[in-house]
Amino acid sequence: MKHKYQNYFYLPLLCSMLITTLLLIVLLFTGCSNFNTNNANTSDQPAYITKSSFLLDTFVTIQIYDKQEEAILEGSMDVIRKYEKIYSRTDEDSELYQLNHGALASKGQQVSEELADLLKYSMKYSNLSEGAFDLSIAPVSSLWNFKASNPVLPSEESIKEALSYVNYKDIKIEGNKITFAKEGMAIDLGAIAKGYIADRVKDYLLGEGVKSAMINLGGNVLCVGNKPDGSPFNVGIQMPYADRNETIAVMEISDLSVVSSGIYERYFSLDGVSYHHILNPKTGYPYDSNLISVTIISPYSVDGDGLSTSAFALGLEKGMDLIESIPNTYAIFITDDYKLHYTKGFKEAIKVIVSK
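^ that's the sequence the OP posted. Answer follows.
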């Protein structure tokens, strides 16, 4: 079975790929020393302090504008490291890896509060999307390597075998106890973990007295409050398949999350066919639709993460219906003709200052 997609070039170098494929860009219009010419800093104190690191298999950046203490920046990174050690599917020391490989059987498959909480969010979106988003996709997703220099297409036989273990309804969550209906089932939290972790970083910053900050976990952007002068942050959506500094839309965002899922985040091309990382739990292959990306604006980043994948999987019409059914949540869908489709009420709630 072979699915046809638009033919785009694969970027083989990991660091280059991670930098150029960030879906969301925080636009610092006046460079790294000032955020906005209307908020010029006349003292010796910088406009913000910032720290970046390679975590969660991507580049993460924290910027703090008001309470400029380096210890708080480092503490933010410690929060990310803590949750990465829980949610990683590939780290053999992570709690999720141990759950997937039966190492928690002696404990009755009891997991930590942190893992149980995110599993419940994942189950919520698996149910809400009727399986278009499926937390049990790990047996299939583990067959695909979108970072390989010489990518290989999984065999139809291996995909068919893996699909027999994919069904979110076969996972039971009772408090902190996790039960799989079949041996061989496994969970992948890659489509929702960054959003959940961004929310935990925000909780940490608020607890430290920070009221103005920007959290960017590889394109999952979460704004803490506003800029110090009370004005909103400017957050841009990258033009698909373009340089990371080229935007297709720029929005004013105050104390909200902006998360995108798109086919140009991770993909490879073989024999003129492009394969992206958003996999269909029913076929084991990438979703085949006319969508390039979905961007969600919501109060919580975990919801933006879960909904962006769910809405992409459902397609334009059903995806828009889903988002429009959820209060205080808005979306931009980009179709393969590069048209932007806004959900009802978007432009009344979110100011779009640049749109192509």
